[in-house]
Design brief:
With 496 residues, the chain is an alpha+beta fold. The chain has helices at 33-41, 76-83, 86-109, 131-144, 174-186, 238-241, 298-313, 355-370, 389-412; strands at 22-29, 49-52, 68-69, 117-125, 162-171, 191-194, 199-204, 209-213, 216-225, 242-254, 260-264, 271-276, 281-291, 319-328, 334-337, 345-349, 423-428, 431-437, 443-447, 458-460, 465-467, 474-476, 481-483. It binds flavin-adenine dinucleotide.
Protein backbone atom coordinates (compact mmCIF):
# COMPACT_ATOMS: atom_id res chain seq x y z
CA UNK A 1 0.00 0.00 0.00
CA UNK A 2 1.07 3.58 -0.60
CA UNK A 3 2.84 5.09 2.43
CA UNK A 4 2.29 8.55 3.86
CA UNK A 5 5.04 11.17 4.10
CA UNK A 6 5.20 10.54 7.87
CA UNK A 7 5.79 6.81 7.57
CA UNK A 8 9.29 7.41 6.19
CA UNK A 9 10.15 8.44 9.77
CA UNK A 10 9.12 5.11 11.23
CA UNK A 11 12.70 3.84 11.63
CA UNK A 12 13.63 0.27 12.43
CA UNK A 13 11.94 -0.44 15.72
CA UNK A 14 10.39 -3.78 16.43
CA UNK A 15 8.29 -4.92 19.34
CA UNK A 16 7.43 -8.33 20.72
CA UNK A 17 4.52 -10.31 19.33
CA UNK A 18 2.04 -11.66 21.87
CA UNK A 19 2.91 -15.34 22.27
CA UNK A 20 1.70 -16.25 25.74
CA UNK A 21 -1.47 -15.99 27.77
CA UNK A 22 -1.63 -13.25 30.41
CA UNK A 23 -3.82 -11.36 32.88
CA UNK A 24 -3.98 -7.61 33.25
CA UNK A 25 -6.00 -4.81 34.81
CA UNK A 26 -6.44 -2.89 31.56
CA UNK A 27 -6.17 -4.13 27.98
CA UNK A 28 -5.85 -1.47 25.28
CA UNK A 29 -6.63 -2.65 21.75
CA UNK A 30 -4.93 -0.48 19.11
CA UNK A 31 -1.74 1.58 19.01
CA UNK A 32 -2.81 4.78 17.23
CA UNK A 33 -3.16 8.17 18.92
CA UNK A 34 -6.11 6.94 21.02
CA UNK A 35 -4.46 3.77 22.31
CA UNK A 36 -1.10 5.39 23.01
CA UNK A 37 -2.65 8.50 24.62
CA UNK A 38 -4.64 6.21 26.92
CA UNK A 39 -1.56 4.14 27.79
CA UNK A 40 0.40 7.35 28.46
CA UNK A 41 -1.93 8.24 31.33
CA UNK A 42 -1.19 4.89 32.99
CA UNK A 43 2.60 5.33 33.05
CA UNK A 44 3.94 4.30 36.47
CA UNK A 45 0.45 3.99 37.94
CA UNK A 46 -0.78 1.09 40.07
CA UNK A 47 -2.59 -0.57 37.14
CA UNK A 48 -1.06 -3.27 34.94
CA UNK A 49 -1.68 -2.47 31.29
CA UNK A 50 -1.29 -4.52 28.10
CA UNK A 51 -1.49 -2.81 24.69
CA UNK A 52 -2.00 -4.92 21.57
CA UNK A 53 -1.48 -3.52 18.07
CA UNK A 54 -2.76 -5.59 15.14
CA UNK A 55 -0.12 -4.53 12.69
CA UNK A 56 3.33 -3.05 13.04
CA UNK A 57 3.19 0.26 14.89
CA UNK A 58 2.64 3.45 12.85
CA UNK A 59 0.41 2.00 10.15
CA UNK A 60 -3.06 3.24 11.22
CA UNK A 61 -5.20 6.30 10.51
CA UNK A 62 -3.12 8.61 12.71
CA UNK A 63 -0.02 8.00 10.64
CA UNK A 64 -1.81 8.90 7.40
CA UNK A 65 -3.54 12.04 8.68
CA UNK A 66 -2.52 15.61 7.87
CA UNK A 67 -1.32 16.08 11.46
CA UNK A 68 -3.13 19.33 12.30
CA UNK A 69 -3.70 20.11 15.96
CA UNK A 70 -6.41 22.71 15.69
CA UNK A 71 -9.66 23.84 17.27
CA UNK A 72 -10.88 25.43 14.01
CA UNK A 73 -12.40 22.40 12.33
CA UNK A 74 -14.24 23.48 9.17
CA UNK A 75 -17.67 24.70 10.40
CA UNK A 76 -17.93 22.11 13.14
CA UNK A 77 -19.38 24.32 15.86
CA UNK A 78 -22.56 25.09 13.97
CA UNK A 79 -22.88 21.47 12.87
CA UNK A 80 -22.94 20.49 16.54
CA UNK A 81 -25.17 23.44 17.46
CA UNK A 82 -27.73 22.33 14.84
CA UNK A 83 -28.01 18.93 16.51
CA UNK A 84 -27.62 19.93 20.17
CA UNK A 85 -27.21 23.28 21.96
CA UNK A 86 -24.61 25.89 22.88
CA UNK A 87 -23.57 24.03 26.06
CA UNK A 88 -22.56 21.00 23.97
CA UNK A 89 -20.70 23.22 21.47
CA UNK A 90 -18.83 24.87 24.35
CA UNK A 91 -17.76 21.57 25.83
CA UNK A 92 -16.61 20.31 22.42
CA UNK A 93 -14.57 23.50 21.93
CA UNK A 94 -13.03 23.20 25.40
CA UNK A 95 -12.13 19.58 24.71
CA UNK A 96 -10.27 20.63 21.54
CA UNK A 97 -8.36 23.30 23.44
CA UNK A 98 -7.55 20.79 26.19
CA UNK A 99 -6.43 18.28 23.54
CA UNK A 100 -3.98 20.82 22.12
CA UNK A 101 -2.71 21.83 25.58
CA UNK A 102 -2.24 18.20 26.59
CA UNK A 103 -0.39 17.20 23.41
CA UNK A 104 1.91 20.22 23.81
CA UNK A 105 2.60 19.30 27.43
CA UNK A 106 3.38 15.69 26.52
CA UNK A 107 5.74 16.87 23.78
CA UNK A 108 7.50 19.30 26.14
CA UNK A 109 7.69 16.99 29.18
CA UNK A 110 9.18 14.18 27.14
CA UNK A 111 11.26 16.17 24.67
CA UNK A 112 9.48 14.62 21.73
CA UNK A 113 10.96 15.82 18.45
CA UNK A 114 7.87 15.78 16.21
CA UNK A 115 8.29 18.99 14.17
CA UNK A 116 5.59 20.75 16.21
CA UNK A 117 5.03 24.12 14.53
CA UNK A 118 2.76 26.96 15.53
CA UNK A 119 0.60 27.93 12.60
CA UNK A 120 -2.55 29.77 11.59
CA UNK A 121 -5.65 27.74 10.72
CA UNK A 122 -8.25 28.83 8.19
CA UNK A 123 -11.60 27.59 7.04
CA UNK A 124 -12.44 28.97 3.60
CA UNK A 125 -14.88 28.61 0.74
CA UNK A 126 -15.11 29.51 -2.91
CA UNK A 127 -18.85 28.87 -2.92
CA UNK A 128 -21.28 31.79 -2.56
CA UNK A 129 -23.87 29.47 -1.06
CA UNK A 130 -21.64 28.94 1.98
CA UNK A 131 -21.44 32.60 2.99
CA UNK A 132 -24.37 32.53 5.42
CA UNK A 133 -22.84 29.54 7.18
CA UNK A 134 -19.67 31.53 7.80
CA UNK A 135 -21.73 34.32 9.41
CA UNK A 136 -23.36 31.73 11.66
CA UNK A 137 -20.02 30.15 12.59
CA UNK A 138 -18.62 33.58 13.48
CA UNK A 139 -21.61 34.23 15.75
CA UNK A 140 -20.83 31.01 17.60
CA UNK A 141 -17.11 31.83 17.79
CA UNK A 142 -18.07 35.21 19.29
CA UNK A 143 -20.13 33.46 21.96
CA UNK A 144 -17.22 31.13 22.66
CA UNK A 145 -14.92 34.14 23.00
CA UNK A 146 -12.66 32.99 20.16
CA UNK A 147 -10.61 35.66 18.46
CA UNK A 148 -10.78 35.22 14.69
CA UNK A 149 -9.87 37.14 11.53
CA UNK A 150 -11.72 37.46 8.22
CA UNK A 151 -8.76 37.20 5.88
CA UNK A 152 -5.26 35.83 5.57
CA UNK A 153 -2.24 37.26 3.84
CA UNK A 154 -1.06 33.68 3.39
CA UNK A 155 -3.83 32.63 1.02
CA UNK A 156 -4.35 34.84 -1.96
CA UNK A 157 -6.95 33.49 -4.33
CA UNK A 158 -9.54 35.71 -6.00
CA UNK A 159 -12.02 32.86 -5.98
CA UNK A 160 -12.18 32.72 -2.18
CA UNK A 161 -15.46 34.13 -0.88
CA UNK A 162 -15.10 33.74 2.87
CA UNK A 163 -12.35 33.06 5.39
CA UNK A 164 -12.24 32.40 9.11
CA UNK A 165 -8.71 32.46 10.49
CA UNK A 166 -7.55 31.66 14.01
CA UNK A 167 -4.08 31.70 15.54
CA UNK A 168 -2.38 29.52 18.16
CA UNK A 169 -2.97 26.24 16.39
CA UNK A 170 -0.30 23.69 15.44
CA UNK A 171 0.85 21.08 12.97
CA UNK A 172 3.15 18.17 13.71
CA UNK A 173 4.50 14.89 12.35
CA UNK A 174 2.10 12.27 13.77
CA UNK A 175 4.50 9.33 13.35
CA UNK A 176 7.29 11.10 15.23
CA UNK A 177 4.76 12.02 17.94
CA UNK A 178 3.53 8.42 18.33
CA UNK A 179 7.14 7.20 18.31
CA UNK A 180 7.90 9.59 21.18
CA UNK A 181 4.84 8.44 23.12
CA UNK A 182 5.70 4.79 22.58
CA UNK A 183 9.26 5.33 23.78
CA UNK A 184 8.12 6.64 27.17
CA UNK A 185 5.29 4.12 27.47
CA UNK A 186 7.52 1.10 26.92
CA UNK A 187 9.92 2.27 29.63
CA UNK A 188 7.13 2.07 32.18
CA UNK A 189 7.31 -1.20 34.14
CA UNK A 190 3.54 -1.57 34.45
CA UNK A 191 2.84 -1.42 30.67
CA UNK A 192 3.50 -4.21 28.16
CA UNK A 193 3.29 -3.45 24.46
CA UNK A 194 2.95 -5.95 21.59
CA UNK A 195 2.66 -5.51 17.83
CA UNK A 196 1.45 -7.89 15.08
CA UNK A 197 -1.11 -9.04 17.65
CA UNK A 198 -4.60 -8.58 16.21
CA UNK A 199 -7.46 -9.15 18.65
CA UNK A 200 -10.08 -11.27 16.90
CA UNK A 201 -12.61 -11.84 19.67
CA UNK A 202 -13.63 -10.59 23.11
CA UNK A 203 -15.58 -12.86 25.44
CA UNK A 204 -17.22 -11.85 28.70
CA UNK A 205 -16.52 -14.16 31.62
CA UNK A 206 -17.55 -13.87 35.22
CA UNK A 207 -15.50 -10.89 36.42
CA UNK A 208 -13.20 -10.64 33.43
CA UNK A 209 -13.14 -10.15 29.72
CA UNK A 210 -11.02 -12.49 27.65
CA UNK A 211 -9.49 -11.19 24.44
CA UNK A 212 -7.95 -13.50 21.84
CA UNK A 213 -4.92 -12.58 19.72
CA UNK A 214 -2.37 -14.88 18.05
CA UNK A 215 -4.21 -17.81 19.67
CA UNK A 216 -3.32 -16.45 23.11
CA UNK A 217 -5.78 -15.33 25.77
CA UNK A 218 -5.51 -12.01 27.57
CA UNK A 219 -7.70 -11.80 30.66
CA UNK A 220 -8.55 -8.19 31.52
CA UNK A 221 -10.69 -6.41 34.09
CA UNK A 222 -11.20 -3.44 31.75
CA UNK A 223 -10.89 -3.19 27.99
CA UNK A 224 -10.27 -0.08 25.90
CA UNK A 225 -11.24 -0.47 22.25
CA UNK A 226 -8.92 2.02 20.52
CA UNK A 227 -8.83 0.45 17.07
CA UNK A 228 -10.61 3.29 15.24
CA UNK A 229 -13.39 1.05 13.87
CA UNK A 230 -14.22 -1.90 16.16
CA UNK A 231 -14.00 -5.43 14.76
CA UNK A 232 -17.28 -6.43 16.49
CA UNK A 233 -20.83 -5.08 16.26
CA UNK A 234 -22.12 -6.06 19.69
CA UNK A 235 -21.69 -4.51 22.19
CA UNK A 236 -22.06 -0.89 21.14
CA UNK A 237 -23.61 -1.24 17.65
CA UNK A 238 -20.93 1.16 16.35
CA UNK A 239 -21.63 0.36 12.64
CA UNK A 240 -25.13 1.75 13.19
CA UNK A 241 -23.83 4.97 14.74
CA UNK A 242 -21.14 5.79 12.20
CA UNK A 243 -20.05 5.81 8.58
CA UNK A 244 -16.64 6.10 6.96
CA UNK A 245 -15.13 8.93 4.95
CA UNK A 246 -12.12 8.54 2.68
CA UNK A 247 -9.72 11.13 1.22
CA UNK A 248 -6.69 11.30 -1.07
CA UNK A 249 -3.53 13.09 -0.01
CA UNK A 250 -0.26 14.17 -1.62
CA UNK A 251 2.97 15.71 -0.33
CA UNK A 252 5.15 17.70 -2.72
CA UNK A 253 8.60 19.17 -2.11
CA UNK A 254 8.42 22.97 -2.39
CA UNK A 255 10.92 25.78 -1.96
CA UNK A 256 9.10 27.63 0.76
CA UNK A 257 6.98 26.70 3.76
CA UNK A 258 4.22 28.92 5.17
CA UNK A 259 2.78 28.98 8.69
CA UNK A 260 -0.76 28.26 7.62
CA UNK A 261 -3.04 25.28 7.26
CA UNK A 262 -6.54 25.30 5.83
CA UNK A 263 -9.69 23.41 5.01
CA UNK A 264 -12.79 24.16 2.94
CA UNK A 265 -16.18 24.35 4.58
CA UNK A 266 -17.97 22.56 1.79
CA UNK A 267 -17.89 19.04 0.50
CA UNK A 268 -15.85 17.47 -1.06
CA UNK A 269 -13.21 18.75 1.30
CA UNK A 270 -9.96 20.34 0.22
CA UNK A 271 -7.35 20.61 2.96
CA UNK A 272 -3.73 21.73 2.99
CA UNK A 273 -0.76 22.40 5.25
CA UNK A 274 2.98 22.84 5.00
CA UNK A 275 5.61 20.64 6.62
CA UNK A 276 9.31 21.26 7.11
CA UNK A 277 11.76 18.67 8.30
CA UNK A 278 15.53 19.09 8.64
CA UNK A 279 16.13 18.98 4.90
CA UNK A 280 13.00 19.86 2.97
CA UNK A 281 9.74 21.77 2.82
CA UNK A 282 6.57 20.04 1.69
CA UNK A 283 3.11 21.16 0.62
CA UNK A 284 0.53 18.64 1.78
CA UNK A 285 -2.71 18.66 -0.18
CA UNK A 286 -5.88 16.62 0.38
CA UNK A 287 -8.94 16.34 -1.84
CA UNK A 288 -11.52 13.98 -3.33
CA UNK A 289 -13.02 13.16 0.05
CA UNK A 290 -16.20 11.10 -0.04
CA UNK A 291 -18.13 8.50 1.86
CA UNK A 292 -16.36 5.23 1.14
CA UNK A 293 -19.35 3.91 -0.81
CA UNK A 294 -18.81 6.71 -3.37
CA UNK A 295 -16.01 7.31 -5.87
CA UNK A 296 -14.91 3.70 -6.18
CA UNK A 297 -12.58 4.35 -9.13
CA UNK A 298 -9.55 4.65 -6.89
CA UNK A 299 -7.05 5.32 -9.69
CA UNK A 300 -9.13 8.22 -11.00
CA UNK A 301 -9.33 9.72 -7.50
CA UNK A 302 -5.57 9.41 -6.99
CA UNK A 303 -4.87 10.88 -10.45
CA UNK A 304 -7.15 13.85 -9.78
CA UNK A 305 -5.47 14.59 -6.45
CA UNK A 306 -1.99 14.32 -7.96
CA UNK A 307 -2.97 16.58 -10.88
CA UNK A 308 -4.42 19.25 -8.59
CA UNK A 309 -1.32 19.21 -6.36
CA UNK A 310 0.84 19.53 -9.48
CA UNK A 311 -1.25 22.46 -10.76
CA UNK A 312 -0.73 24.26 -7.44
CA UNK A 313 2.97 23.55 -6.90
CA UNK A 314 4.17 23.03 -10.47
CA UNK A 315 5.83 19.82 -9.33
CA UNK A 316 5.00 16.12 -9.27
CA UNK A 317 4.10 15.01 -5.72
CA UNK A 318 6.71 12.95 -3.89
CA UNK A 319 4.14 11.03 -1.85
CA UNK A 320 0.52 10.04 -2.39
CA UNK A 321 -1.70 8.03 -0.09
CA UNK A 322 -5.29 7.57 1.10
CA UNK A 323 -6.79 7.64 4.55
CA UNK A 324 -10.21 7.07 6.08
CA UNK A 325 -11.83 8.03 9.33
CA UNK A 326 -14.94 7.20 11.32
CA UNK A 327 -17.72 9.79 11.13
CA UNK A 328 -20.72 10.17 13.45
CA UNK A 329 -24.21 11.35 12.59
CA UNK A 330 -24.22 14.05 15.29
CA UNK A 331 -20.66 15.34 14.64
CA UNK A 332 -19.60 14.37 18.18
CA UNK A 333 -17.03 11.65 18.96
CA UNK A 334 -17.98 8.46 20.80
CA UNK A 335 -15.77 8.27 23.90
CA UNK A 336 -16.63 6.32 27.02
CA UNK A 337 -18.40 3.13 28.13
CA UNK A 338 -19.48 1.23 25.05
CA UNK A 339 -22.88 0.13 26.41
CA UNK A 340 -25.03 0.16 29.53
CA UNK A 341 -24.48 -3.58 29.97
CA UNK A 342 -20.73 -3.59 29.47
CA UNK A 343 -19.52 -0.98 31.91
CA UNK A 344 -15.95 -2.25 31.77
CA UNK A 345 -15.56 -1.97 28.00
CA UNK A 346 -14.58 1.49 26.77
CA UNK A 347 -14.36 2.89 23.27
CA UNK A 348 -13.05 6.05 21.61
CA UNK A 349 -13.85 6.59 17.94
CA UNK A 350 -15.92 8.75 15.57
CA UNK A 351 -13.58 11.73 15.54
CA UNK A 352 -15.00 13.03 12.24
CA UNK A 353 -11.46 13.55 10.87
CA UNK A 354 -10.29 15.49 13.95
CA UNK A 355 -8.50 12.78 15.93
CA UNK A 356 -5.29 14.57 16.95
CA UNK A 357 -7.15 16.67 19.51
CA UNK A 358 -9.98 14.20 20.20
CA UNK A 359 -7.69 11.14 20.41
CA UNK A 360 -5.41 12.95 22.86
CA UNK A 361 -8.24 14.06 25.12
CA UNK A 362 -9.90 10.62 24.79
CA UNK A 363 -6.87 9.11 26.53
CA UNK A 364 -7.49 11.30 29.58
CA UNK A 365 -11.27 10.75 29.58
CA UNK A 366 -10.88 6.97 29.42
CA UNK A 367 -8.21 7.02 32.14
CA UNK A 368 -10.61 8.93 34.42
CA UNK A 369 -13.55 6.63 33.67
CA UNK A 370 -11.49 3.50 34.25
CA UNK A 371 -10.55 4.83 37.70
CA UNK A 372 -14.21 5.76 38.34
CA UNK A 373 -13.25 9.44 38.46
CA UNK A 374 -15.43 12.19 37.04
CA UNK A 375 -14.54 13.84 33.76
CA UNK A 376 -16.29 16.96 32.51
CA UNK A 377 -16.60 15.56 28.97
CA UNK A 378 -18.04 12.21 30.04
CA UNK A 379 -21.65 13.09 29.22
CA UNK A 380 -21.27 14.88 25.87
CA UNK A 381 -19.12 12.15 24.36
CA UNK A 382 -21.05 9.23 25.93
CA UNK A 383 -21.32 6.56 23.19
CA UNK A 384 -24.73 5.49 24.55
CA UNK A 385 -26.29 8.97 24.17
CA UNK A 386 -29.76 8.91 22.72
CA UNK A 387 -31.04 9.55 19.19
CA UNK A 388 -32.77 12.78 18.20
CA UNK A 389 -34.55 13.77 14.98
CA UNK A 390 -31.57 15.37 13.21
CA UNK A 391 -29.31 12.54 14.22
CA UNK A 392 -31.88 10.06 12.89
CA UNK A 393 -32.12 11.93 9.57
CA UNK A 394 -28.33 11.89 9.25
CA UNK A 395 -28.32 8.21 10.19
CA UNK A 396 -30.66 7.47 7.25
CA UNK A 397 -28.71 9.55 4.71
CA UNK A 398 -25.23 8.64 5.88
CA UNK A 399 -25.15 5.21 7.49
CA UNK A 400 -28.15 3.45 5.89
CA UNK A 401 -27.93 4.97 2.41
CA UNK A 402 -24.15 4.55 2.32
CA UNK A 403 -24.24 0.87 3.07
CA UNK A 404 -27.19 0.21 0.77
CA UNK A 405 -25.39 2.01 -2.03
CA UNK A 406 -22.20 0.04 -1.47
CA UNK A 407 -24.07 -3.28 -1.47
CA UNK A 408 -26.16 -2.56 -4.56
CA UNK A 409 -23.35 -1.04 -6.63
CA UNK A 410 -21.30 -4.19 -6.29
CA UNK A 411 -24.30 -6.44 -6.73
CA UNK A 412 -25.34 -4.83 -10.00
CA UNK A 413 -22.01 -3.66 -11.39
CA UNK A 414 -19.62 -6.42 -10.47
CA UNK A 415 -16.96 -5.43 -12.98
CA UNK A 416 -16.78 -1.69 -13.64
CA UNK A 417 -14.92 -0.63 -16.80
CA UNK A 418 -11.87 0.62 -14.86
CA UNK A 419 -10.97 -2.92 -13.73
CA UNK A 420 -9.90 -3.46 -17.37
CA UNK A 421 -8.27 -6.89 -17.54
CA UNK A 422 -6.41 -6.59 -14.26
CA UNK A 423 -9.14 -7.81 -11.98
CA UNK A 424 -12.60 -9.32 -12.14
CA UNK A 425 -15.37 -10.55 -9.89
CA UNK A 426 -17.03 -13.79 -10.83
CA UNK A 427 -18.52 -17.00 -9.42
CA UNK A 428 -16.52 -20.17 -8.93
CA UNK A 429 -18.28 -23.25 -7.54
CA UNK A 430 -21.23 -20.99 -6.68
CA UNK A 431 -19.05 -18.68 -4.55
CA UNK A 432 -18.39 -15.03 -5.35
CA UNK A 433 -14.67 -14.54 -5.89
CA UNK A 434 -12.31 -11.75 -6.89
CA UNK A 435 -9.46 -12.51 -9.26
CA UNK A 436 -6.39 -10.37 -9.87
CA UNK A 437 -3.80 -11.04 -12.56
CA UNK A 438 -0.33 -9.75 -11.67
CA UNK A 439 2.22 -8.41 -14.19
CA UNK A 440 3.57 -11.92 -14.83
CA UNK A 441 0.06 -13.15 -15.56
CA UNK A 442 -0.24 -15.10 -12.29
CA UNK A 443 -3.77 -15.46 -11.00
CA UNK A 444 -4.59 -14.47 -7.40
CA UNK A 445 -8.08 -15.60 -6.35
CA UNK A 446 -9.81 -14.61 -3.11
CA UNK A 447 -13.31 -14.52 -1.71
CA UNK A 448 -15.14 -11.33 -2.73
CA UNK A 449 -17.11 -11.14 0.51
CA UNK A 450 -15.82 -9.18 3.50
CA UNK A 451 -15.82 -11.39 6.63
CA UNK A 452 -16.77 -8.38 8.80
CA UNK A 453 -20.39 -7.71 7.76
CA UNK A 454 -20.55 -9.54 4.41
CA UNK A 455 -20.21 -6.57 2.03
CA UNK A 456 -18.86 -7.19 -1.49
CA UNK A 457 -15.32 -5.96 -2.08
CA UNK A 458 -14.07 -3.61 -4.82
CA UNK A 459 -10.65 -3.73 -6.42
CA UNK A 460 -8.22 -0.89 -5.75
CA UNK A 461 -5.80 -1.00 -8.66
CA UNK A 462 -3.40 1.58 -7.23
CA UNK A 463 -2.75 -0.14 -3.91
CA UNK A 464 -3.53 -3.63 -5.33
CA UNK A 465 -5.98 -4.36 -2.57
CA UNK A 466 -9.59 -5.53 -2.27
CA UNK A 467 -11.41 -2.80 -0.33
CA UNK A 468 -14.72 -2.91 1.54
CA UNK A 469 -16.90 0.05 0.45
CA UNK A 470 -19.07 -0.27 3.58
CA UNK A 471 -16.76 -0.31 6.62
CA UNK A 472 -13.25 0.11 5.23
CA UNK A 473 -11.57 -3.31 5.63
CA UNK A 474 -8.78 -3.94 3.14
CA UNK A 475 -7.10 -7.14 1.92
CA UNK A 476 -4.08 -7.78 -0.27
CA UNK A 477 -4.47 -9.75 -3.52
CA UNK A 478 -3.63 -12.99 -1.70
CA UNK A 479 -6.43 -12.38 0.79
CA UNK A 480 -4.46 -11.26 3.87
CA UNK A 481 -6.23 -8.60 5.90
CA UNK A 482 -4.17 -5.38 5.81
CA UNK A 483 -6.69 -3.14 7.56
CA UNK A 484 -9.62 -3.84 9.86
CA UNK A 485 -12.35 -3.89 11.03
CA UNK A 486 -12.24 -7.41 9.55
CA UNK A 487 -9.93 -9.60 11.58
CA UNK A 488 -10.14 -12.50 9.16
CA UNK A 489 -8.58 -12.95 5.76
CA UNK A 490 -10.42 -13.78 2.52
CA UNK A 491 -8.27 -16.66 1.32
CA UNK A 492 -10.45 -19.05 -0.60
CA UNK A 493 -9.67 -22.27 1.27
CA UNK A 494 -10.26 -20.59 4.64
CA UNK A 495 -13.68 -19.17 3.74
CA UNK A 496 -15.23 -22.50 2.65
C1 LIG B 1 -7.49 12.09 5.31
C2 LIG B 1 -7.50 12.33 6.79
C3 LIG B 1 -6.79 13.38 7.33
C4 LIG B 1 -6.84 13.64 8.70
N1 LIG B 1 -6.15 14.69 9.21
C5 LIG B 1 -6.31 15.02 10.51
C6 LIG B 1 -5.71 16.19 11.04
O1 LIG B 1 -5.01 16.92 10.34
N2 LIG B 1 -5.93 16.49 12.34
C7 LIG B 1 -6.72 15.73 13.12
O2 LIG B 1 -6.95 16.08 14.28
N3 LIG B 1 -7.26 14.56 12.67
C8 LIG B 1 -7.08 14.20 11.38
N4 LIG B 1 -7.65 13.07 10.89
C9 LIG B 1 -8.36 12.16 11.80
C10 LIG B 1 -7.40 11.28 12.57
O3 LIG B 1 -6.39 10.81 11.71
C11 LIG B 1 -8.12 10.08 13.19
O4 LIG B 1 -9.32 10.49 13.78
C12 LIG B 1 -7.25 9.44 14.27
O5 LIG B 1 -5.97 9.21 13.75
C13 LIG B 1 -7.84 8.14 14.78
O6 LIG B 1 -6.94 7.65 15.73
P1 LIG B 1 -7.11 6.21 16.38
O7 LIG B 1 -6.02 6.00 17.31
O8 LIG B 1 -8.50 6.11 16.88
O9 LIG B 1 -7.02 5.21 15.13
P2 LIG B 1 -5.72 4.63 14.41
O10 LIG B 1 -4.67 5.64 14.27
O11 LIG B 1 -6.22 3.99 13.16
O12 LIG B 1 -5.21 3.54 15.39
C14 LIG B 1 -5.93 2.34 15.58
C15 LIG B 1 -4.94 1.21 15.65
O13 LIG B 1 -5.65 0.03 16.03
C16 LIG B 1 -5.11 -1.06 15.33
N5 LIG B 1 -6.13 -2.12 15.27
C17 LIG B 1 -7.21 -2.20 14.46
N6 LIG B 1 -7.89 -3.33 14.70
C18 LIG B 1 -7.23 -3.97 15.69
C19 LIG B 1 -7.42 -5.21 16.36
N7 LIG B 1 -8.45 -5.99 16.05
N8 LIG B 1 -6.53 -5.59 17.31
C20 LIG B 1 -5.46 -4.78 17.63
N9 LIG B 1 -5.24 -3.60 17.01
C21 LIG B 1 -6.11 -3.20 16.07
C22 LIG B 1 -4.77 -0.49 13.97
O14 LIG B 1 -3.79 -1.27 13.31
C23 LIG B 1 -4.28 0.91 14.32
O15 LIG B 1 -2.90 0.98 14.47
C24 LIG B 1 -7.61 12.79 9.53
C25 LIG B 1 -8.30 11.71 8.99
C26 LIG B 1 -8.26 11.48 7.64
C27 LIG B 1 -9.04 10.33 7.07
Amino acid sequence: MEKSIWQKDRGQINFDILSDKMSTDVLIIGGGITGLSTAYNFINKKYNVVLLEADKFFTGTTCKSTGKLTYLQDLKYQDIYNVYDFETVKLYYEAQKDGIRLAKKIIKDNNIDCDLTKTESVTFTKDNKEIKKFDKEKEILDLLGVKYYNSSSNIKDDGIKQVILVKNTYVFNPVKYLKGLLKVIKNSDNIKVYENSRVTKIKKEDKYYVAYANQCEVKAKKIVVACSYPFFTIPGFIPFKTYIEKSYITATKVDESKDICGITSNYPTVSFRYHSDKNDNYFIYLNNSSKICDKLNYKKNYDECVKKAKDITGKIPNYKWTNMDVMTNDFMPLIGRISEDDKNVFIATGYNTWGMTNGTIAGKILYDLIRNSKNKYEKVFDPTRSMNIIKFKNFLTNTVLSNTKAYTFNLIKKNPSWYKNRACVTKVDGKRVGIYFDKKGNKHMVSNICPHLKCFLTFNEVDKTWDCPCHGSRFDVDGNVVKGPSCYNIKIDETK
